[in-house]
Amino acid sequence: MKYVDLNCDMGESFGAYTLGNDAEMLKYVSSANIACGFHAGDPGTMRQTVKLALEYGTAIGAHPGLPDLAGFGRRKMSISPQEAYEMTVYQIGSLWAFVRSEGGVMRHVKPHGELYNMAAADSGLAEAIAEAVYKVEPELVLYGLSGSELIRAGEKAGLRTASEVFADRTYQQDGSLTPRRIPGSVLTDDQEAARQVIRMVSEGKVRSVQNIDISIQADTVCIHGDGAHAVPFAAAVSGSLKQAGIVVQAVGLTR
Length: 255
Prior knowledge:
Function: Catalyzes the cleavage of 5-oxoproline to form L-glutamate coupled to the hydrolysis of ATP to ADP and inorganic phosphate.
Family: Belongs to the LamB/PxpA family.
CATH architecture: Alpha-Beta Barrel
Number of domains: 1
Protein name: 5-oxoprolinase subunit A
Structural class: alpha/beta
Mean pLDDT: 94
Largest sheet: 7 strands, parallel, barrel
Shape: globular
Order of helices and strands: EHEHEHEHHEHEHEEEHE
Number of helices: 8
Helix content: 25-40%
Radius of gyration: 17 Å
Enzyme class: hydrolase
EC number: 3.5.2.9
CATH superfamily: Glycoside hydrolase/deacetylase
């Protein structure tokens, strides 16, 4: 029997702005990556999302990003490894306090947006993030792009890692995600995305935009929750996995 984690970025509303439908998405995912106030989120949203995740029995993780509310953490920013370390520790700590105060346990850390992309390719940033996670709590699972520097850094630091794949993104032949600025970077067809996910989990393969099969490790699958079609998309992917006999379960639980 095969298992896979379905994760979703959540708690990204802030101030007067509401993003995503977290309560509905929690019906289909096993792990929630909760924004920590840098790229999105605020104290009230963080607490409410933690409470929701605990009600659904969903594994909770910190989702630290670059300090860029205006750009939703998706713009490049020049930061040093020391800055990456410090902003990661800061954001894990802020969410940990809410999780602890609500009687929960934090399970994982997944960097957001451009911080995630930079750490996938930059070993210095990756090692700084991995060190931050390890020093806060060595039992936390570090999520990173499959085959990336972040996964290698996490393993080197002694962390358990979860290699992440994306349900709704296309891939380049080097295993990287197609940049969002390029047409065709995002899959919009539910069935096409579901087929891609099942193949990644079952066969460890994905077809790149160059029409070449590449090997990929799929411990956890990201489903974005901030699109207008997010809930039906999540339902389709979750349903297809179950139909294929693949059990949806959080990383780190007994199997």
